[in-house]
Amino acid sequence: MTVSFELSPELETYRHGLRDWSVAVLRPYARAADASHAAPADWPQILSTCPVPLGRHSRDKTATVTVFPDGEPLRGMVQTEAVNYGDTWAQSHISGGIGHVVVKLLGSPAQVERWHDPILADTAKVTALGLSEPQAGSDTGAISTRAIRDGDCWVLNGTKVFCSHGASAEFVVVIAVVDGGDGVRSTEAFVVERGTPGLEIVRKNETKLGLRAWETSQIALVDCAVPVSHRLASVAPSPSNDGRRLNALTALNDNRPNVSAMATSVAEAALDITQPLLHEQRRAFRPDRWTLVERDLDAMRAAIARSRRVGYRAQWLRGAGRSNRSEASMAKAFGPHTAERIVRRCMQLLGPDGTCTDLLLEKWYRDMKILDIFEGTSQIQRRIITRELAKAWFQP
Ligand SMILES: Cc1cc2nc3c(=O)[nH]c(=O)nc-3n(C[C@H](O)[C@H](O)[C@H](O)COP(=O)(O)OP(=O)(O)OC[C@H]3O[C@@H](n4cnc5c(N)ncnc54)[C@H](O)[C@@H]3O)c2cc1C
Question: Whose CA is closest to atom 24 on ligand 1?
């Protein structure tokens, strides 16, 4: 058995380059993005200053896919971690949304060529996934958006909420229920391009507690007809996908360790700001107070290390082509929840200074609450973990 949690030297160098850049370039925009509920208008130019390859934003397009010995899932997680160490505002713009990721996962080669590849080539474009509804998010079985076949088209009707980039996206991948002739229901994914008649933007952005620069839109589909070629080809069960039929939720599963990485890095940034400030005040503290402070600092460092390891393991399993459902959910359940507690503790240790807008702690505290809720709440992750454990017990 090999147990190593060390990144390769190449990935370490990449991580440091990205992290320094995110602190120097992204962090100064954090307050303005939070106050205006939007990323800076020139975000593509800001991202283009990154000195190391940044996925689709790499300056050198030939370096878009940099191969590291650690594998692509782990590289992606390290990228997410390093970028969010500066602040969270840029994350959704760097990834460009999740719609094209779902196309890559579920689409035919022609669909991937049409809707996935151009998004990687044009860094100013974003895409969206419309799954959550007013009465359905965690419970995907309650989705009520309908797709009905009408000749060469599918006609969609329904409402989607909290759709990331919904109002700005080139297209939204809409999850809808298809009624089969034999009464069998199935959820399918449909690409609805911007400007399609019947695709209505009800609200461009929600006013949220945190992650305010992350646009979340409400959209309505009113007799919205798309050609049959816009239904994403589904992928049949196979050993490589655990015998499960792939659906849009698989993309969410793949992204869970990255959400955890966002949280872990913000927790670390909060601690890295708090610790030196406490050290400056140390002389004024009685010894018993300092002992308690040190105990808290140690506990928080350890929690960050645990959080990171759970996420790394999930990504390592994925990179090795093995199932990581349980580990991905563990990372999502543990990371944001832990980060929320750490940022809260940092504010507490600093007293009122910790809650002032001179520091970013109060912003990050608000951001962490959102990370704990979206892409599947921690309660839902715990249900998934329990289900996976039960499967392992009963199907040895
Ligand atoms: C910033 C942001 C971006 C988002 N982006 C997208 C997007 O791009 N596309 C999209 O489709 N959605 C998106 N969402 C929606 C988000 O994924 C859902 O809101 C989230 O998964 C929770 O689902 P819900 O809204 O149905 O809440 P509910 O399921 O109603 O949850 C309410 C509470 O009930 C609990 N709960 C629910 N069911 C159970 C259960 N069975 N057992 C125990 N507790 C339970 C939950 O844990 C939660 O605490 C986004 C949300 C945010 C805030």
Answer: 137
pLDDT tens per residue across span 212-241:
999 999 999 999 999 999 999 776 555 455
- Measured from the Cα of 208, ligand 1's closest atom is 53
- Ligand 1 proximal residues by C-beta, below 6 Å: 128-132, 137-138, 162-164, 211, 214, 216, 370, 373-377, 379-380, 383
Reduce the DSSP state of residue 323 to 3 states and report it: coil
Q: Is 296 helix (H, G, I), strand (E, B) or coil?
A: helix
The answer to whether 375 touches 337, Cβ cutoff 8 Å, is no
| Ligand 1 nearest-atom number relative to CA 211 | 1
Average pLDDT value over all residues in the chain = 89
Q: For residue 105, what pLDDT is reported?
A: 87
The H or E element spanning position 395 is none
Residue 2 belongs to what H/E stretch?
Answer: none
Atom of ligand 1 nearest to the CA of 128: 8
- Out of 34, 98, 132, 205, give the residue to mutate to test ligand 1, the one with the largest number of ligand atoms within 8 Å of its CB: 132
Alpha carbon of 367 to ligand 1 centroid (Å): 15
Q: Given ligand 1 and candidates 374, 378, 384, 386, which is best to mutate, with the most ligand atoms within 8 Å of its CB?
A: 374
10-35: per-residue pLDDT in tens?
A: 999 999 999 999 999 999 999 999 99
Residue among 93, 101, 138, 383 whose CB has most ligand 1 atoms within 8 A, to mutate: 138
CA angle 209, 371, 307 (to 5 degrees): 140
pLDDT at 49: 92
CB 232 within 8 A of CB 171: no
Using CA atoms, how far apart are residues 282 and 276, in angstroms rounded to an integer?
Answer: 10
**How far is CA 270 from its chain centroid?**
20
**Counting runs of H as helices and runs of E as strands, what totals does the chain give?**
14, 7
pLDDT of residue 247: 64
pLDDT, tens only, 84-125:
999 999 999 998 899 999 999 889 999 999 999 999 888 889
Question: pTM of the entire structure?
Answer: 0.91
Among protein residues, the one whose CA lies closest to atom 39 of ligand 1: 380
Give yes or no for residue 135 having a pLDDT over 60. Answer: yes
**Contact indicator for 297, 240 with CB cutoff of 8 Å:** no
CB 258 within 8 A of CB 331: no
